[in-house]
Amino acid sequence: MDRTQKAALASAAIGAGVTGLKFTAWWLTGSLALYSDALESIINVVAAIFAFAALRIAAQPADAEHPYGHHKAEFFSAVVEGALIIVAALLILREAFEGVLAPQPLDAPLLGVAVNALATAINLAWASFLLRRGRAWSSPALVADARHVIADVVTSGGVLLGVALVAATGVLILDPIIAGLVALNIVWSGWVMVRDSVSGLMDKAAPPEMAGRIRALISDHGAGALEAHDVRTRHAGQATFIDFHLVVPGEMTVKESHDICDRLEAAIEGEIQGAVVVIHVEPGEHAKQRGVPVV
């Protein structure tokens, strides 16, 4: 089990504990907003389990039926998580609508707020860690899970404000109204997650800064070649596929050109985590004079 899978399992365990705290807060107060927040946290646990399953699949090596590996499984997980966020938001909106029609008084609001605040603090700390690790490890599944937890933190912040305002003012309808407003924000978060994951499934290119690093590495480590052109990239989970045409002098031997390719592959794979490099060698007359010059 690698580090990303361990993080996904830890996310499920922490999510279960946080969900328990939030249901306790709802039980203490009877607050519709707190109940809706607890429902959203159940989705967090389910999403973390999906992320773990996707990471297990993505870690499998390439085989005859999947020669390029199973990396895209992480994007499927992120799409599912985004959809689950939207489902959770719709559940909250339904509860909020019913609450507007029939507002209910709250029991022990201060104690409920304290318990929910503890759960929110745990979620915020974990989301920050998960987002940093997910980006550092180039894991779409962990980044999606972190964003899901962040959406839960936003939900909880709105809910805590609503319950506090109800306790301070006695205006019961504020409880479901604020829950509904937070749910709309969660819908947007889920949509962004689905949109970004679909881009990955459509073989979106590496970000500009990474593409610039790749071109610089080709220029710096391609001594002996003339140029590189048609540099292409695509992301698939934790892997970044990179391919390009390398132009060498026509009289260069196969071994000499192969040595340059080995040097380039080692440099790129050493700098770009998860890089998978494919190089097509061409003779000098194929130079386009508009590719990456080699210095």
UniProtKB/TrEMBL annotation:
State the membrane topology.
Multi-pass membrane protein
State its location(s): Membrane
Task: Report the leader peptide range.
Answer: none
All copies of the Cation efflux protein transmembrane domain together span: 9-202
Cite a single Pfam family from the UniProt record: ZT_dimer
What sequence ranges are listed for the domain Cation efflux protein cytoplasmic? 207-283
The transmembrane residues are 7-29, 41-59, 75-93, 108-129, 149-171, 177-194
State whether keyword Membrane applies: yes
Principal localisation: membrane
Organism superkingdom: Bacteria
> What InterPro entries is this protein classified in?
Cation_efflux (IPR002524), Cation_efflux_CTD (IPR027470), Cation_efflux_CTD_sf (IPR036837), Cation_efflux_TM (IPR058533), Cation_efflux_TMD_sf (IPR027469), CDF_Transporter (IPR050291)
User: What keywords tag this UniProt record?
Assistant: Membrane, Transmembrane, Transmembrane helix, Transport
Q: Does the keyword Iron-sulfur apply?
A: no
UniProt similarity note: Belongs to the cation diffusion facilitator (CDF) transporter (TC 2.A.4) family.
Q: What is this protein called?
A: Ferrous-iron efflux pump FieF
Q: Which organism is it from?
A: Methylobacterium iners
Q: Which gene encodes it?
A: fieF_1
